[in-house]
């Protein structure tokens, strides 16, 4: 600070209420205001000039000189105390160095009585105390808000963990982590009770201890505080861990600084399913303990949920296993049923080729065998579909052709029942992209079902239309016994049948409509049924997406495949079933084979192949010892050329079975029992023909 003259300082100082003096470093007063004059004991401020302040200070002069000396050396304020006349009236002096107009050094002194300074200091201290109290209050409020926020977030996050965690151990571990992070627990743990309700097993641990093994990994009911909480089904909460009888390791509690403990039983329907507990190095408030009790209930419910889910999973797995075994049983049953059908069907085919006088009876038996074969086929088809093993061989086909084929297949059955069948087809062909064999099977099953459940002389109809939404409709209708209203929702389920008569004249396996539904859905379509009840008939409607007509086939190529001439053949039939071997031998002879040999197992078949040199070899896959696949590979290895035809004969006809046959070296794959047409086609194979 700079001043011009003592006079200008006086004008400056008179603007203040405090006593101000301008003194030289030696203590000579150069100027002052009226308040300073009053403090020193003179009437007018002009009387202050050139007086020695040390004389006024009396006994406090040394302190004054020291104060002036220190103030001269620093630009900061220097504080001291002097007596002005009366030693009992101490004054506080605040000195500050300033520069005069002529660059001389002066000291400006502000003088105030000590009692005023004391009051000001006391007031300042009071302000500080008030400020400290306000800071403490705000900190307490902030701490309370933070605690309430943490408690609220703890409750929210616990709920999320219990609901969203897929596994129970993950949910419980998340709960203990939240007790540590949100509630500032030293560590938290959750135990689950074993099935016998005798022992608690540590599942989750967070904070100071994260391991789930060791001394407290298993606690018997009634042991320690945790076991007693479980046994008594009562919580235990304390903010005085030191001295608490339930906390047995007091030395550990003192060493770790533990203050509070909260433990809660996890109870589900009156049964203890676990214990949740935490230690803290700070007291636990009532709001937290109340929330922990609620959380314990939520954890118990989550344990119940997991128990229910585990039970359902076990039941589902048991049902899935039972269903798998059922499918395997159906597949094995259908396979085993095929084996005895081979000699029966072949024997009847042989009788048809003979000059027997009982052709009508033979034809009747053939139809019954065909019916049995079809039942076995349906049984196997359902098993395949249920296991997702059926693959469609799609092509563009006319629906009308499929309908006519199905009618031809059932013509005898319809005529025998005296039914009148009406077929209504649209003027323009309706094309669908489908597996013709499977879709014919659908129509045939529906028509057979209508025939079966219609009394003698009934009326059946098949109507084909194309809808505006580019859907093909196949409607099979009858005026038969109808379907009970209550049965309609289950009519397509496996083994579902309408009411039967005592003589089971409408019998069957109850799988035909299940097969229909699955095959139609595999084609991207739907099937539905309507009936007004018993005695009103029924209508089954199949909806399939239409497609465009295919290009015309090459007629020259078609003609070229028909211009073939058969040549003499040698046939080797290998089957461990003696009756099947005999019938195959006889029927091939009737079909014109030059010579037929048989074998019952792999070794004899290999010997026969090397000596007999057959053109056609039929191998049963299920041979004892060396199976048909291994036998086929050995035959291929021993053959000098591939001019012969190697055909698998088995009760299994799934896609993977055919692929397995192909990989083993088979040229073709026939499913038991083979029809006479299939055997005739083998003898007419292009490999055996010459133009």
List the helices and strands and how they pair.
Layout: H1 6-13, E1 19-23, E2 29-32, H2 34-40, H3 53-57, H4 61-72, E3 78-83, E4 90-99, E5 105-113, H5 114-164, H6 168-183, E6 187-193, E7 199-207, E8 218-220, H7 224-232, E9 236-238, H8 250-256, E10 260-268, E11 271-280, H9 286-353, H10 359-386, E12 395-398, H11 399-416, E13 420-424, E14 431-434, H12 436-452, E15 459-466, E16 471-478, H13 512-522, E17 526-530, E18 538-545, H14 555-562, E19 565-566, E20 570-574, H15 578-590, E21 595-599, H16 602-612, E22 616-620, H17 628-638, E23 645-650, H18 655-664, E24 668-671, H19 676-683, E25 689-690
Parallel strand pairs: 13-15, 20-21, 20-22, 22-23, 23-24
Antiparallel strand pairs: 1-2, 1-5, 3-4, 4-5, 6-7, 6-11, 7-8, 9-10, 10-11, 12-14, 15-16, 16-18, 17-18, 19-25
Helix pairs in contact: 5-6, 5-9, 9-10, 9-15, 10-13, 11-12, 12-13, 16-17
Could you give a short description of this structure?
With 691 residues, this protein is of the alpha+beta class.
Structural commentary:
- The structure is a single chain.
- The protein has 691 residues and is of the alpha+beta class.
- The protein has four domains: 115 residues, 2-Layer Sandwich (Beta-Lactamase), CATH 3.30.450; 120 residues, Beta-Lactamase, CATH 3.30.450.40; 155 residues, 2-Layer Sandwich (Heat Shock Protein 90), CATH 3.30.565; 131 residues, Response regulator (Rossmann fold), CATH 3.40.50.2300.
- The strands form six sheets. It has a six-stranded antiparallel β-sheet with strand order 8-7-6-11-10-9, with helices on both faces.
- It contains 19 helices and 25 strands.
- The protein is elongated.
- Pfam families: GAF_2 (PF13185), HATPase_c (PF02518), HisKA (PF00512), Response_reg (PF00072).
């Amino acid at each position: 600070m700079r001043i011009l003259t003592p006079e200008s300082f006086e004008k400056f100082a008179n603007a203040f209420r405090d006593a101000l003096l301008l003194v030289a470093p030696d203590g000579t007063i150069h100027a002052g205001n009226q308040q300073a004059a009053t403090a020193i004991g003179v009437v007018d401020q002009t009387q202050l000039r050139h007086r020695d302040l040390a004389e006024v200070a009396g006994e406090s002069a040394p302190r004054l000189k020291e104060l002036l000396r220190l103030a001269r050396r620093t630009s900061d304020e220097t504080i001291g105390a002097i007596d002005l006349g009366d030693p009992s009236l101490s004054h506080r002096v605040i000195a500050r160095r300033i520069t005069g107009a002529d660059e001389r050094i002066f000291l400006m002194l502000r003088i105030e009585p000590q009692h005023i300074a004391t009051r000001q200091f006391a007031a300042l201290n009071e302000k500080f105390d008030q400020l400290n109290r306000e800071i403490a209050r705000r900190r307490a409020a902030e701490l309370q808000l933070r605690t309430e926020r943490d408690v609220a977030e703890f409750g929210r996050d616990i709920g999320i963990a219990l609901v969203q965690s897929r596994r129970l151990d993950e949910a419980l571990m998340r709960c203990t982590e939240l007790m540590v992070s949100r509630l500032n627990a030293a560590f938290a743990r959750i135990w689950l009770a074993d099935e016998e309700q005798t022992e608690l097993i540590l599942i989750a641990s967070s904070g100071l201890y994260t391991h789930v093994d060791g001394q407290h990994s298993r606690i018997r009911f009634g042991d320690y505080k945790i076991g007693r909480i479980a046994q008594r089904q009562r919580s235990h909460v304390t903010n005085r861990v030191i001295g608490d009888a339930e906390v047995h390791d007091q030395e550990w509690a003192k060493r770790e600084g533990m203050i509070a403990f909260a433990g809660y039983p996890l109870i589900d329907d009156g049964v203890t399913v676990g214990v949740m507990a935490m230690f803290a190095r700070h007291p636990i408030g009532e709001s937290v303990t109340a929330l922990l009790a609620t959380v314990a209930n939520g954890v118990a419910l989550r344990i119940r949920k997991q128990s229910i889910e585990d039970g359902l999973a076990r039941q589902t797995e048991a049902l899935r296993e039972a269903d798998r075994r059922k499918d395997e049983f159906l597949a094995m049953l259908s396979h085993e049923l095929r084996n005895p059908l081979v000699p029966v069907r072949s024997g009847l085919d042989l009788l048809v080729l003979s000059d027997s006088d009982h052709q009508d009876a033979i034809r009747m038996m053939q139809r019954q065998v065909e019916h049995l074969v079809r039942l076995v086929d349906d049984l196997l088809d359902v098993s395949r579909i249920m296991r997702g093993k059926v693959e469609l061989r799609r092509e563009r086909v006319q629906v009308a052709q499929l309908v006519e084929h199905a009618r031809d297949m059932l013509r005898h059955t319809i005529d025998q029942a005296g039914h009148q069948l009406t077929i209504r087809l649209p003027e323009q062909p309706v094309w669908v992209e489908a597996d013709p064999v499977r879709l014919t099977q659908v129509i045939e099953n529906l028509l057979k079902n209508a025939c079966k459940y219609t009394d003698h002389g009934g009326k059946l109809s098949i109507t084909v239309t194309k809808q505006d939404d580019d859907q093909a409709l196949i409607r099979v209708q009858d005026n038969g016994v109808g379907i009970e209203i209550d049965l309609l929702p289950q009519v397509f389920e496996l083994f579902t049948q309408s009411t039967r008569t005592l003589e089971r004249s409408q019998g069957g396996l109850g799988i035909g409509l299940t097969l229909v539904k699955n095959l139609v859905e595999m084609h991207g379509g739907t099937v539905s049924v309507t009936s007004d009840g018993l005695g009103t008939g029924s209508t089954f409607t199949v909806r399939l997406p239409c497609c465009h007509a295919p290009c015309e086939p090459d007629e020259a190529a078609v003609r070229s495949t028909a211009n073939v001439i058969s040549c003499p053949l040698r046939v080797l039939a290998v089957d461990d079933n003696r009756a099947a071997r005999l019938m195959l031998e006889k029927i091939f002879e009737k079909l014109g084979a030059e010579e037929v040999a048989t074998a019952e197992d792999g070794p004899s078949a290999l010997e026969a192949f090397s000596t007999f040199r057959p053109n056609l070899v039929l191998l049963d896959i299920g041979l004892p010892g060396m199976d048909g696949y291994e036998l086929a590979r050995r035959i291929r290895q021993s053959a000098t050329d591939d001019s012969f035809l190697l055909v698998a004969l088995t009760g299994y006809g799934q896609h993977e079975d055919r692929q397995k046959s192909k990989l083993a070296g088979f040229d073709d794959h026939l499913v038991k029992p083979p029809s006479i047409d299939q055997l005739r086609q083998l003898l007419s194979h292009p490999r055996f023909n010459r133009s």
